[in-house]
Amino acid sequence: MTSGTPSAEPDRARREVADGFRYVAGVPFLWVMIAISSLLLMVQIAPFQVLLPDLVKTQWHQGVGGYGLLMSVMGPAWCSARSPSARSFHAATGR
Length: 95
Prior knowledge:
Helices cover 82% and strands 0% of the residues. The protein is an all-alpha fold. It folds into 2 domains: 7-60; 62-95, no CATH class. The mean pLDDT is 84.
């Protein structure tokens, strides 16, 4: 084994990355989950992050502070929406 030679390290890294891609390609569950996650990121989260600052500026006439406040409030709101008590509320009310 060539330990520490500069020319051997990039070749080893390339081989390991190629091995990783081959492994993922050989396990359908992995590449399907990666594809679904990528699609959701591209369709749902990216437009939200791009358009929300403009919405805060043009519709609510707020600046960076308003955007920061909105982002700060959304974290606990998303966590509470996924809590067991919220799920039982939605199940009981049909909403």
